[in-house]
Structure formats: C-alpha cells, structure tokens
Amino acid sequence: MEFWTFFAARPLMWLIVTITTFIATSWLNRRLGGTPLLHPVLVSLFLIIVFLLLTGTSYETYFEGAQFIHFLLGPATVALAVPLFDHFERVKKLLLPLMLACMAGAVTAAVSALLVAQALDASLGTLLSIAPKSVTSAIAIGVAEKLGGYPSLASGLVLITGALGCMLAPPIYRILNITDEAVKGFTLGVSAHGMGTAFAFEYGLMAGAFGGLAMGMTGAFTAFMLPLLVSLLGIG
Amino acid sequence: MLIGFLILLLFQFAGELIVVVSGLPVPGPVVGMVLLLAGLIAKGDVPDYLRIPSEALLKHLALLFVPAGVGLMTHLGLLQQDWLAILAALIISTALTIVVTALILNPSARKLQALSQSEPGEGDC
Fold it and tell me: Which helix (DSSP H) or strand (DSSP E) does residue A186 occupy?
C-alpha cells in the first residue's frame, strides 16, 4: 500500500498508464480488424476511467502526469497544416466544389446536432460540447473550451461521432448510389474526421487522401464558423 | 527535427498571441495552423526538417486525445442526464451530414477522378 501511495502521487505513473493502455488497445484493435466501435481511444478512455474510479484517484491527480501528453495537442494541431498543404497542392483546381461541400457539411453537422439536442432539453454545457463533434478532437477540444463547453465531453462525443460516421456511411452511399471513391472519402472526412479518414483508406488510397483533406478543411472552417453560429442560434 | 518542432511551437505561439490580441473566439493552435498553411503555400514545399516532426506527431495523434477524454469521468452525471439528447443528436446529425456532403460533391465526381489520376503521388494522413 505504501508502494501504491508513493507511485500514485507521481506524474510519471499516469504517463506510463496512459501510454501502456493506448499501446495495448491499439494492438487489440488491430487484432480485431480495426473496427471503429472498439477504437483504441474509446477503449483506453473506458479502461483508464474504470481504473481511476476503482483506485479512488481524482482526475486532477491523473492529469498531473497526463498533461505532458495533452500539451502536444497544440503543436500537433499546427502540424495538421502539413498534410493539408500536400492535399491542397493536388486539388487546388477543384477547390470550389470541395470547399462548398465542406462548408455545407460542417454547417449541417453543427446546426442539426444543436437543434436536435436543444429540442430534447439538453443542458447548455452539453449543447456547447456537442457543437464541434464532427471535427478532429485536436480542434474540437480547443473549440469547446472557447465556447464554454466541456473539452473532455467534446472529445468523447467526437469519438462516438467518428464511430457512427463509419457505420452510417456505407448504407447511405448505397441508398444515394454514391460510387466515386473521392466523394466517399471526402464525405467521411467531413462527417467523421480522423476516424472517417482511417476508414476511407479501406475504399482506396485516393479516398483516404480526400478524407484527410476534408478533415483538415472542416476542422479549420468549423473553428471559425461555430462561434458565429452559436450566437446566431442564440445559444450560450 | 528539433528546428521543425520549434517552428510548430512558434506558430502555435503566434496563433495564441493573435487570439489574445484580437479577441477572436478561435483556439490559438488553429490560427497557428492556418498561418503555417499560408506560409507553406507561399514557400511552395514542405522542408524535411518540418515534415519529419509533423508526421511523427500526427502519426500518434489519437494518443494525444486520451488525457482530455479521461476528463469524461468528471461529467458522468451530465451524461446520465442528457444521454438520450446526445445520442439522438449525434445519430441524426451524422447521417444528415453524410447525405448533404455526398450530394453536393457527387456532381463533381468525374472531375475529381480525372484530377487524381493525372497527378502522381499518394496521399497519406
């Protein structure tokens, strides 16, 4: 028990727990064929939360160690400019339809989520955390914070949205008769961010590339659009 | 590697500075990303010393979401109270987003196809 008290108070311990859990759940996910339902982040969150609750550890104690990983989200968000630039160079001739699709998709995602949640009496904190659910967690966490929502709730909802997008897209493509790889990939990137992009690679490299482009564009656009939208809808 | 990482941090810092000075309700790193993208477009290519640390960070992007996500444990009450609204909102809005995006982009499908075939190089995220 003294051993435990010693280590539980050390930031190092929670850094090790976070990385170990993530490596294990990534391995497990690969063994299970990469299903978005058991995404390594979702499973890691579940396991670490259960572990913290069982050991009576507070989130603040955990975060003292985990903050060193969390800090890297900032530079990683800036780094999204690199793949965005690579894709941008290749598609700049078709930027207009791509931008239109991205903007329409991003606005649809935020407005419909806000309206449905509001109609079902969700609390204000939930509304402001649900708004950025279609963009990569790197951006959604920052956006939720700026809007006055809960960054951690936002990052959880982003992951669930990602898994939903991967499940809903194939039947919708069948119903709408969407057969083009680039359209499939781009749509997955707009609606389901990085998880959709990873899923798009199963349609082919081109679908994956368009997914990555869509993810970056949607993230950047949403970060600027949401504050306006939230005040237009009179939320917050 | 180190220079590239420093560049990322400096762009993040510039983004955060702009946000503080202008009062824009946008996360600083996102402004940093837009600035870096503009810089890369002006420069015309990505130097290796920037590409290597950027791709190393993005390769493990998913891990970086875990610490914030664990914070869900402080909102279990909120989840219990709002779970139905959350679930309905996520399902309906994700389906609608897919329909709207795919329908708008689909007319350009042939052009997209031609464009990606005419240019070599594989995309990677």
Answer: helix A181-200
